[in-house]
Each structure stands twice: as C-alpha cells, then as structure tokens.
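Assemble and predict.
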Amino acid sequence: MPSKPLEIRIDLGAVTPAYRQIADALRTFLVDRVFRVGEQLPPVRELAMELGIHHNTVAEAYRQLSDEGWLDLKRRRGATVVDRQAPEPANSQREVLRKRLRELVAEMRAAGFTTSEVQAELASLIEGLSI
Amino acid sequence: MSPYWVVPFTVAGIGLFNSWSPLWTRRNLFFGVTTEPGFRETTPARDILRSYRLRLWLTVAVVLVLSLLLYALTGHVAQQYGALLVLIAGSLWSFARANRAARPFAVSGSTVRSAAIGVGPSPFESWPVMLAGPVILATTVLIASWLTGPTLSAGWDSIHQGKHLGFVMGMAVGSWGVGPLLRYGSRRSPVIPGQRRLVLQNSVIINLILCLISAGAIATAAAGYAIPDLVPIAAVCLACVLLAFHLVRLSRLGLQSGRIQAAPAGDGTPDERWKWGFFYCNPDDPAILIEKRSGPGYTLNFGRPAAWAITAGFLVLLMLPLISRHR
C-alpha cells in the first residue's frame, strides 16, 4: 500500500460514467506505479461505501482494469495488481485515443490555453507519469 | 417525586430536545433539505422554524393533557406511556410539514464524490482487537462456570445486582455490535478524514472497558464473594457516562463538518431519498448507517435489508422484558 493516502474523485453529474471515471483514476495510479505488483486495491464494497455509489459501479471499473491486464480479480481475495507489459496499441485504439486527445486539446484551447501552454501541460504530465 | 409526574417531565424534555435538534446539523441542511449555507438566517427559514415549533409544542400540550387524563382515569402510570406514541407521531408530523415547506428552497447537492485509498489498516480496525472484549467476557464466563458450576449465581446474592450487571453486559455486547456495523456499514463524513476510524476506536475502547467490568463481576461472584451493593450501581453509572461520552463525540464529529467552509454542498445523499426529511431509503447506497440530517447521530438506510433486520432485532429486545413478565 502507498505510504500516504491517495484520493479518487468522481463527478456523478458528469457525462462520463462513474465506473469509467474510477477506472481512469485508478489507471493513472497504476501507470504511475503507485501500487506495486502484488498489492491489493481497496475492496469493492469499501470503495463503493466511501464514494456513496452502488458496488456494481466499482466492480465494473475493476473488471475493466482486469480486462486491460492491470488486475487479477479473485473472489474473496479482492483485486491484486499484476505485472503488465504494455501491449502494442491496435490501430483502432490509436484512433480512439487520438480522438479523445484532440477533443481535450480543443477544450483547453477553447478555455484560453495557448498552444505552448497546452504543450507544456502535456509534457509535464508525461514526465510525471513514470512510463 | 410522585410517579405520575415522570411521563409529563419526559414529554416536556423530549419536546425541548425536538425543538432544537433540527438545527444541530450541517449548515447546508434544513429540515432534511439541502439548502444554501446561509439559508437559516433568512426570513422564510425563520418562518418555517417558527411553524415547526408551534406545531411541536401544540403536540406536547395535547400529550401532557392526555397523559394526566389517562392517569386520572386509570390511576396507573403505565397507561401514560401510550401518550408518548402520540408525541412521536406528532413530532414526525411537525417535521414532515417543515420538510415540505423547505423543499422550494432546495439546491442541488454536490455531485462530486471522493474517497481516500491506500491509507492502510489501523490497528483498531483489525479483528483481533475488535474481538478482545467479547473474548475476555466469554472466557471468564466459561472458566467461572467450569470452576464453580451451579454456585456461580449464588455470588449475586440480590436480584438487583444481577439486573444491574446484566445491563452492563448488555451494553458491552451492544457496543461490540456497533463496532463492526460502523466498520463495514457506515458512510464517512465527506470532509473529516479518519472519522470512521475515530468512531471505531471509541467503540472498541468502550467495549473493552464494559467487558472487563462484566468479567470482573463474574469472576468475583464465581470466587464466592458477595458483591457490595455500590459496585453494580457504580458500574451502571460508569457505563452510562461512557455511552454519553461516545454519543457526544459522535455528534461532534458529525457536526464539525458543518463548520468547515470547504464542505461540499449537501452530505452526499440525494434529497429525494429522504422520506419526510427523516427516514433514509436508498438501495443503491451501500452504507447501512448514515449521518442524520436532523440532530446528532446516525440513522439507518432502510433501503438495505440489514437495516430492517437491525430494527427487528431492537424491537425484539424491547419486547423481551414485556414477554418475560407476562409468562
């Protein structure tokens, strides 16, 4: 377990479904290697209680991460972080992620970020995620 | 004090408590409705509060007259307790009316949820510590029974001592039951980190003390010593003080978040899931214990089957003395 508490923050009023927000937040920690291989994520019920949402929502987020190869889900043993080798992204997945990135950049530009500011933010984020 | 004054005093005390308890909650909650933090100081809010208190004290007056009338007609104090049911119904009615009046002023609660992860287990949350109290108690009972056999009860040489110590043991068992419920079935405050752990620590410590008192009494009785009369009375007083301390601490933990400016709007529960602003029913919420929206303490999430099981259990415990008396 990490030495200091981390926070997952979701917005139930957002367009993005809650389970995807949870999966995205946890994926960030997993990519950043905050959770080491073999460590366990919080139990589904506990995380659902903390967030005040149905446990199925958290379970769906864990299932998604398991399908991506991040977690090993075993009944009564919870979700364990596994050693994952980053796969070669498929062309279709490249297209989807590129589209999402394009939309995010457009949103930042519309909010007033200059091109150099957007580049600096992306560079800083990439550096922060120890890939 | 003459016995027939007990119920009227109780009624008046409950009326006084209910008159103020709706304000003992987060600043952005008003009669179970999520509002702007400063709403209570507005004229509509004061009008709603005034109407609520008028209805409440009208109910109290009716119940007082009813209880005295019942005593005058029957001569029995027990019949007066029926008047308390009218007080409960009247209080709920007053609160429900105030809740309905406050709804036009509702604001959307924050839809943001957060959870701390990766904190690691606290020693007080581990099962060995949770089980310490009941294990001490059960072991003492088993050893005492094995050593002394049927003479164990002879040490409790008055029925009153047995009742007093039974009360302490009952509270020990009850406080242990609250612990797991808080650990696995309660919603934490959205702004107070470690709140559940604090409450759980409280429960475990109190449970240990109560179990040690009970175990000591059993061991003393098993050794053949008569327990002085003051001992069970002191044990009951100590148990009541511990319980009061626990309740005050619980209420202060919940109310603290109301004074924090950065608190998100609302308490994380949807307004529409609070029936009459008082009863919480949300099957999608995994929490069994929820902070009350009126007054200090917790209430049950009646959308969960466990809440109904707990309620049924309490009712059975309440009915047991009545059933045993009439058998």
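Residues 43-74 of chain B form the longest helix (32 residues).
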